[in-house]
Write a structure and sequence with these properties.
By secondary structure, the chain is α/β, with parallel strands linked by helices. The protein contains eight helices and ten strands.
Length: 252
């Protein structure tokens, strides 16, 4: 079942009256099916983060249309967009974005609290998701009292707790060491397979991308190529490296 569709998305920065316009995206069109785990890759400045921001309704396309679960997101006003983000989109950021003045539990339930859920419902949901993701023991600690890996798991719990239609991950392994990064990628795979979550992940790391089932490569604001995972993760990884070498290598 199709969960997301873009039609000729373009993004131009700068005033039309200015000669210093920059086209970050050029007529991007693709579809995402429910339950897919998709990677978005490209060199620095290729437009991949701009694309993610538009998919998450953080930014707005200059031209084109975005459909999520059959609804034309491009036509929503600011109030409707805020409600859409809260109900349908989960975000996992590189820097976790946890509030230090709140416990891990309070950070996770924040989206539900903002939506007016009852306390007993929030408590049941946070205990269930924290148990699934293995952080029950740190729920009543503050973010600065737990490891980077536990903070990232908490961020994943917060993204999942409202049962969003799509989870958007922006370089989620960027601040983690290799072990914590691998743990997070296995966690995202678990979320994708066990929770049936649709995930779109921006990454510059070929190893991280090899956990995806499909990869869109962005070059100069356009879709340059895409790869589908096969039986062998090693072969998929090597194919990713080959495409990235053509695009100019990985970001530093």
């Amino acid at each position: 079942m199709e969960i997301l569709k873009t039609q000729n998305l373009s993004k131009i920065y700068g005033s039309q009256k200015s000669s210093k316009q920059y086209m970050a995206l050029k007529s991007i069109s693709f579809t995402v099916n429910e339950g897919e785990f998709i990677g978005v890759m490209g060199a620095s400045g290729s437009g991949k983060t701009t694309l993610l921001n538009i998919l998450g309704s953080i930014d707005k396309a200059t031209n084109g249309r975005l459909f999520i679960a059959g609804k034309d997101i491009s036509s929503l006003d600011q109030k409707q967009l805020a409600r859409h983000r809260m109900e349908n989109i989960g975000f996992i950021f590189q820097d976790y974005n946890l509030l230090e003045t709140m416990t891990i539990r309070e950070n996770i339930i924040l989206p539900l609290a903002l939506s007016g859920y009852k306390a007993e419902v929030m408590e049941e949901k946070v205990n269930t998701i924290a148990n699934d993701l293995g952080i029950v023991s740190v729920l009543d600690k503050y973010s600065y009292e737990v490891s980077g890996g536990e903070q990232q798991r908490a961020a994943a719990c917060r993204a999942l707790i409202s049962n969003p239609k799509i989870i958007l991950a922006d370089e989620p392994t960027g601040n983690l060491d290799s072990k914590s990064g691998k743990d997070l990628l296995e966690l995202l795979t678990f979320i994708n397979t066990e929770h049936k979550a649709t995930i779109i992940m921006v990454t510059h790391d070929a190893f991280a991308a090899s956990y995806c089932r499909r990869i869109l490569f962005i070059r100069d604001g356009e879709i340059y190529n895409q790869l589908h995972a096969g039986e062998s993760k090693k072969e998929f990884f090597n194919s990713i490296i080959d495409v990235m070498s053509v695009l100019g290598g990985e970001e530093k």
